[in-house]
Design brief:
This protein has about 950 residues and is an alpha/beta fold. The protein has 33 helices and 19 strands. About 55% of the residues lie in helices and about 10% in strands. An eight-stranded parallel β-barrel has the order 7-8-9-11-13-14-15-16, surrounded by five helices. It has a five-stranded mixed sheet with strand order 2-3-5-4-6. Helix 5 (about 190-210) runs parallel beside helix 6 (about 235-255), helix 20 packs antiparallel against helix 21 and helix 27 runs antiparallel to helix 28 (about 840-865).
């Protein structure tokens, strides 16, 4: 009865482990209410309307007015206007953008209450002339007054060598690091000159597109904190003063052009001396308040500060710069305390604090971005006229197949909506991707839901790593025109959300590519199909239309391409995708083929246009090259999706037809992948996607059929060993089940080797099969633990005959191997992991039995020591503690010396379980919120167990048991 209780107890503990594992994994998925892709109507080809004016007269002159007026005359000259005058009258100093256009006998009049309205009207007229459209008359007030942009590609180095590797995932976006010197005078004036020219170009372009503000990265590099933080001789002081002196005039240009300037920083923003100083303070916020006052004093033109708390770490640190950020504001109370401190400073001078709700994590702050309840918890009680909350329009990052972000309908704070023009997860702007209709539909819906939305923030270049994608720098390098469409469109939509998206695209195409109506119409049809190509070529619809959750996080809808350009091969992502899509495999595969067909049609549409109608032959060539790249990419990805879905189908069902389809698809994939990589591997403008992770996974999963055969053979050997009436084999199986009846002596010399060698061989081979013979790190950790446990136990029994001990240890090893091989024999390790990720019932059953057998090792070892070696309970306990502590200590030391991140990376690369890019981009430890102190904890636990066991064993040995 007691033994039955032990067995039941072990199974209960195993079930508890299974429940705990499921609770940790938190794997689930459910349908999501994704935003529908609006249909785009391409306007019919129409001839350009003649420009009604040729010249502009102003009753007031300033730099911003003169630049805006010049945009009108340049557009009129290009359009071939021959007569007509635009008379601009500024009646006062009103900051509103309202203006009125009226027709006169010889042209038009533009009347505005201030320069803001006059410049808005001038740019609107210039845009209509360039678009070949009629200029509407009447009074106009832009719908949204705060129209922000990022800083574009200003300050970004265009050296091709930076892009050649394709694996630089640095996320630092500071625009002034290229001017930094390691010593006095700290700033390279020639670099400042280059940055100045780029900034002026970008501001002029953005103003012409209708933007009224710019967000500039920076805060800590311009601040000295007086004499409180840095020592008098600390170089941070002189460097900050030099940086301020060099770049305040640069950024002031945006204010001179009538644009608001917001500085952007993560919180906490730190330098080593500042971090040390803050550790001596009860609160960091008085220090940051002093810094913000200093920034506003040094940059009096600044309109405020934008703050992000949801990301940070080493990936955001610029090379050669010791400024960094830390994710330290993690509770609602901390957020409110931080904002209250900064708002107090902003209120002193009438400036704004823009708080980005972007957070990635768990809890009220972790899901602040997407959870209306968390939004209310964190910000619901915070009301300040100087607070603006900035939120992405999608319920997640800038992917397709996502719901609209419902937190934008929450709260009564001033709000702005974030959009990304150069979609980082959709080719970094290297693919045609007209977001006009989607952005317009989202903006109109949000404005109807929340009257407190007063602006937008459009990213022209930002988002994702600087150098891992194509070498395109907005307005400067590469085929940046392809995503300039989305910047232009948001400028139009924010002023008038009711504007027809098709007309916006046609106007931009006329201005950028061709004045010919037929060519413009053809380009419009190509762009109208771009969203279908993107949303089917880069996404797997059944999976993408579900909201998946894992480890407390919400994976994005494009997990088969993990973070930008890495085609993944890990079982966690691919098995989850298959599990969700298994009822729609044929449609999912056909969708990939259709995306390639749409891309081919897009290319044919543009190729059919008359080359002579294009403004610049180079632009036509660039567009055709991008369309060729798109077709090749979608064809390769289609082949890969077919292969891994058919492979998963065979793994899940064992269907012979699925295996035949998988084999055929694998050959096709290898062929298309080789051609694609060879063609684009050295192309910096249109770079090949990264198939390293896909290849790692493919090489392993391709071995599944062979591994299943080997598992069957090994399992058959175990069955035979169970049935063969040979004493050593019978002793092993009997001792595994009845360790208290383990034989006390070996029947012969050969038997001693059999009970060691046979289980050891099965143990090694079963673990090699489990890892496809491709993960030595896993095998080393597993077998090393077994060996250390067995050696310690063997040493503790001293000169006594170890036969009974070996039969128990070997028998338990055979039992655990039999369980593993039973699963592997079905369809290899791939089947094992498919069940683990996608079959909660099978996973729980396996973990329950497996963990019970793991615990049985200690019960069985203790039992044989008690019954066959006549040890006391105290001595047995000491032995088990010591035998357990040594492997744990060894593992802890390994993790500590080699590094937790590195160990997990090597293990994951060899096992292909989690996305290969986790370590390269986000860090496994950071992303999965694994405590970095884990190696220390494991080492300490192993040391404690070892010391306790050794001390107990020493006391027991002083009172030796009777033989």
């Amino acid at each position: 009865m007691r033994r039955l209780v032990v067995v039941v107890t072990l199974l209960v503990l195993g079930a508890g482990m299974a429940l705990g594992l499921s609770d940790t994994l938190r794997l689930s998925w459910q349908p999501a209410s994704v935003m529908a892709e609006p249909r785009v109507t391409v306007p019919p080809a129409a001839p350009a309307v003649p420009a009604p004016i040729r010249a502009v007269t102003l009753n007031r002159h300033s730099h911003r007015l003169d630049v805006a007026a010049r945009s009108v005359t340049d557009a009129a000259t290009e359009a071939g206007a021959r007569a007509g005058v635009l008379t601009v009258t500024v009646t006062g100093d009103d900051r509103a953008e309202t203006y009125r256009i009226a027709r006169t006998g010889d042209g038009l009049t533009l009347t505005a209450g201030g320069e803001a309205g006059a410049t808005a009207g001038l740019y609107a007229i210039a845009d209509r002339i360039r678009s070949g459209a009629a200029i509407p008359t009447g009074t106009v007030t832009p719908r949204l007054g705060l129209r922000l942009t990022d800083a574009g590609s200003v300050g970004r180095d265009d050296d091709p060598a930076l892009w050649r590797g394709g694996t630089d995932y640095s996320l630092n976006t500071d625009i002034v690091t290229g001017a930094l010197l390691p010593r006095a005078p700290w700033v390279d004036q020639q670099a400042v000159g280059r940055i100045t020219a780029q900034f002026h170009q970008f501001i002029d372009h953005s103003a012409a597109q209708g933007y009224t503000g710019v967000v500039v990265p920076g805060f800590l590099e311009y601040v000295t904190f007086g004499d409180t933080v840095y020592a008098p001789d600390d170089p941070h002081l002189a460097r900050a003063e030099a940086m301020t002196a060099a770049f305040a005039p640069v950024f002031r240009y945006a204010a001179d052009m009538g644009m608001r300037v917001y500085f952007l920083t993560d919180m906490l923003a730190l330098s080593p001396p500042l971090a040390g100083y803050l550790r001596t303070q009860s609160s960091p916020w008085p220090t940051y308040q002093a810094g913000l006052r200093e920034l506003f004093a040094a940059m009096p033109f600044a309109s405020g500060l934008m703050i992000r708390i949801g990301e940070g770490g080493s990936a955001y640190r610029a090379p050669g710069w010791d400024y960094y950020s830390d994710i330290a504001v993690t509770t609602p109370e901390q957020v409110r305390e931080m904002l209250a401190a900064f708002l107090a400073v902003a209120g002193e001078s009438g400036r704004d604090i823009i708080f980005r709700s972007w957070t990635v994590g768990v809890g009220a702050v972790g899901d602040l971005h997407t959870n209306p309840e968390s939004y209310e918890t964190v910000l619901g009680s915070l009301h300040d006229p100087h607070l603006i909350v900035s939120t992405k329009f999608t319920a997640g990052d800038f992917y397709s197949h996502l719901p609209m972000n419902t937190t934008l309908a929450t709260g009564d704070q001033r709000r702005i909506v974030e959009f990304q023009g150069r979609r980082e997860f959709e080719g970094f702007g290297s693919l045609p991707n007209d977001l006009t209709a989607l952005h317009g539909a989202a903006l109109n819906r949000l404005l109807a839901l929340n009257p407190h939305i007063e602006g937008v923030w459009l990213w022209t270049q930002d988002g994702g790593p600087l150098h891992a994608g194509p070498r395109t720098l907005y307005l400067r390098t590469g085929f940046w025109q392809l995503y300039d469409l989305n910047a232009y469109a948001m400028g139009r939509l924010a002023r008038d959300p009711s504007t027809d998206p098709g007309e916006i695209t046609a106007d931009w195409a006329r201005q950028t590519f061709s004045p010919d109506p037929a060519t413009v119409a053809a380009i419009g049809r190509m762009f109208a199909a771009s969203r279908e190509a993107i949303t089917t070529g880069l996404y797997l619809t059944p999976y993408a239309d579900y909201s998946a959750k894992a480890l407390g996080l919400e994976p994005p809808p494009m997990m088969w391409i993990f973070e930008w350009d890495i085609v993944t091969g890990d079982s966690a992502a691919l098995d989850s995708i298959y599990a969700i899509s298994r009822g729609h495999l044929d449609e999912t595969i056909a969708e990939g083929e259709r995306a390639a067909a749409v891309a081919d049609q897009q290319r044919a549409t543009v190729a059919a246009t008359d080359p002579g109608t294009w403004r610049d032959p180079a632009l036509r060539a660039s567009l055709l090259a991008a369309l060729d790249y798109q077709s090749d990419l979608y064809r390769t990805l289609s082949a890969y999706r077919t292969m891994f879905l058919r492979r998963a189908q065979w793994t899940g069902t064992g269907s012979a037809q699925a295996r035949d389809r998988w084999t055929a698809a694998a050959d096709h994939y290898q062929e298309t992948r080789t051609i694609f990589v060879r063609r684009y591997a050295a192309d910096l403008d249109l770079p090949a996607y990264n198939f390293t992770a896909a290849d790692l996974g493919t090489r392993r999963f391709d071995r599944d059929p062979a591994m299943a055969v080997l598992a069957k053979v090994l399992l058959g050997v175990l069955v035979v060993s169970l049935l063969v009436p040979w004493r050593p084999l019978r002793d092993l199986w009997r001792s595994a089940i009845l360790p208290w009846r383990a034989p006390s002596a070996a029947p012969g010399r050969a038997a001693r080797w059999v009970v060691i060698a046979f289980p050891a061989t099965v143990l090694v081979l079963s673990r090699e099969v489990f890892t496809w013979f491709a993960a030595p790190a896993h095998v080393l950790a597993t077998l090393g633990s077994w060996v250390l446990f067995a050696l310690v136990a063997r040493l503790l029994i001293g000169r006594r005959d170890p036969y009974a001990l070996w039969t128990v240890l070997g028998g338990v090893a055979l039992s655990r191997s039999a369980l593993l091989l039973g699963v592997l024999a079905v369809r290899g390790p791939g089947h094992y992991w498919l069940g683990f990720w996608a079959n909660p019932g099978a996973r729980s059953a396996y973990v329950t039995i497996g963990f019970a057998l793991f615990l049985w090792l200690f019960v069985a070892t203790g039992s044989v020591l008690r019954t066959r070696y006549a040890w006391s309970r105290r001595r047995v306990t000491a032995a088990l503690l010591l035998a357990t502590g040594v492997p744990v200590l060894a593992l802890g030391v390994l993790l500590w010396t080699a590094g937790l991140e590195q160990c997990l990376t090597v293990w994951n690369d060899q096992m292909a379980l989690l996305p290969w890019g986790l370590h390269r981009i986000l860090g496994i430890v950071t992303y999965l919120d694994i405590p970095p102190e884990l190696p220390l904890w494991v080492t300490a636990a192993g040391a404690v167990l070892t010391v306790l066991g050794a001390a107990g064993a020493h006391r027991s040995w002083r009172r030796p048991a009777a033989p």
